[in-house]
Amino acid sequence: MERNGSASTSISTLFLDRVGEVAVTLDPDGLSWKPIDCESSGSSCLCMNYRLKTENRIEFSNVYAVELIDWGLIEDANRNSGSFFSGNKFEMYRFVVHGFHRGKTHGSPWTLCEYTFGHKDMHICQSWVERLIASTSTDAVRPKSLLVFVHPLCGKGNGVNTWETVAPIFSHAKVRTEVTVTQRAGHAFDCISSLSHRELSSFDGIVAVGGDGLFNEVLNGLLSSRHDAPYPPSPQELDNKSDKNCQHLNNDISRGRASLNGANGMLSAPLCGSDDLAPLLSAVESNGLGISKCTTNNGPCDADEDVKVSFPNDWFRLGLIPAGSTDAIVISTTGTRDPVTSALHIILGKKMSLDIAQVVRWKTSPSSTEVPSVRYAASFAGYGFYGDVIKESEGYRWMGPKRYDFAGTVAFLKHRSYEAKVTFLKTEEQETSNIASDIQTSQLFQKNSKNVVCRANCSICNDFKNAAQYSADVAVSPIHSQDSRWLEYTGRFLSVGAAIISCRNERAPKGLVAEAHLADGFLHLILIKDCPHPLYLWHLINLKRGSNPFDFTFVEHHKTPAFTFVSAHNESVWNVDGEILQACQVSVQVCRGLINLFASGPEV
Ligand SMILES: Nc1ncnc2c1ncn2[C@@H]1O[C@H](COP(=O)(O)OP(=O)(O)OP(=O)(O)O)[C@@H](O)[C@H]1O
């Protein structure tokens, strides 16, 4: 290898498979090559006297692995045969540069490419491999060891095929994977929640190959005993406080109040039975209090000491390779529903923080004390229409992804509405807008609240990341029942939805909430009050078309860090990221940046 000009540029003559002899140049940003013209160079090597119209450069940012492979055949491009695949073959030492091309437009999938170089001298090949590996090791911390869960029945039943497609990418990149194909619902949850801290510390992350539901299981298995934060106030706690603003919906005010207020003025929602439809909940009764924090921000704690792993932390990441029916989390975080692109995000060690909603279900025990049980959601928690769809769709799993269309149509035709009370915490922005008395303040508010779509390197999400140290104190600013910003709605709702992220999907390409951020510490509460059937249809059509779905008087849309919910209906069902959760009383709070994801944000 010769050094040329600047100390950081090197040139060598190598052989490139299916091209011929090339002059290869390594510069600080990438690798380029030029076919050597035999006649003009006077070289006696195995080359041809014409140039190929092929790719002749790859940037290091687009290289995910460099591998020395064994002695073997390299083919040149045979100009006489007219086919690049029937050239002369020569034996030599070889190495492969594995890379990818980013799509030309934002949000398009990345495609793989590889270049096999060869030389008769093994040391030359070795030296190139070493230099290339050094050049491609960027600041990003690439994972070395991952735990992988594959859901074989997800989506159209192609979870295993999806994994087999991307597995070679991991093995080229020398990422160790410990793979479990799930046997039943709850399998991944059980495996992850039962890992000791030491076992968990031996991995850099966990990857789910499936849909949003499998990701939800992985998330819950991880956080169930490792997240330690105060619960949001319960609905009863809020009821005990007197200075909260109350609003009643225009429609059905009297019916809503009559059934929601008990004789003593306190909430009298019926209690749910403890044996509900959420099989995992028994294992999730919060036992996270008092767990000590991992003290380092730079990597896993020393695996020799069994230091407890807790969340948030700076090193552990989750990955999601899409193979599900909806894949809203992947579409909202990588911008494309493509397993190869997601696998590359994981291998390159991309990292972004993700808000997670802590959904606390309150039940009253025989001794009348409130007993919380906790679930976590990364994308969406919804009641009413959303709960009905998920419950209805369970019976039609055999339909695959189409079950959601079918169940959605059935739920829509039933047009059920539910009496409920929702109490949410206004944001400081909303508070400011209420008291803005002069034009200047009001203009400032408008500027600050201008809708900004969340993208890769989103300034709103990054502000937090730069300012924050990963600790529970930052991820959740404690929410008090005494806060004067609680605002209450009672009435009949077609649905109550909480979008933590935009929830982009193929049915609603802009998402349920186009301006939702991945890590801003807020969720978007969408209250759809009871309204005539055609109006609701119009709202759903607007969602699909990407026009403003909140432009209706029967829709309330609020950005909030927390809310509580009480329903008067015994059979109340929530859809928490695709999981059925039966609950009449719920508190939800956003834990800012609680989880790191192997992604860099959508490039939309
Ligand atoms: N081997 C299995 N057999 C049956 N159910 C499983 C199995 N493994 C996981 N599950 C459960 O199946 C549910 C749905 O899984 P997943 O999200 O992967 O697929 P999907 O429903 O097709 O996709 P999406 O959630 O994107 O709509 C999850 O809640 C998970 O708990």
Can you characterise this structure?
This protein is of the alpha+beta class and 604 residues long. Among the domains are: 2-136, PH-domain like; 235-273 and 356-433 and 485-590, Tumour Suppressor Smad4 (Sandwich). The protein has 17 helices and 24 strands. The protein has a 16-stranded mixed β-sheet that branches. The longest helix has 15 residues, at 122-136. The protein is elongated. The model is unreliable at 39-52, 81-85, 251-298, 435-449 and 468-474 (pLDDT under 50). Adenosine-5'-triphosphate (ATP) is lined by residues 151-155, 182-185, 187, 210-214, 217, 324-327, 578-579. Residues 151-155, 182-185, 187, 210-214, 217, 324-327, 578-579 line the site of adenosine-5'-triphosphate. It holds the Pfam family PH_CERK. This is (wild Malaysian banana) hypothetical protein. One of its GO terms (biological process) is ceramide metabolic process.
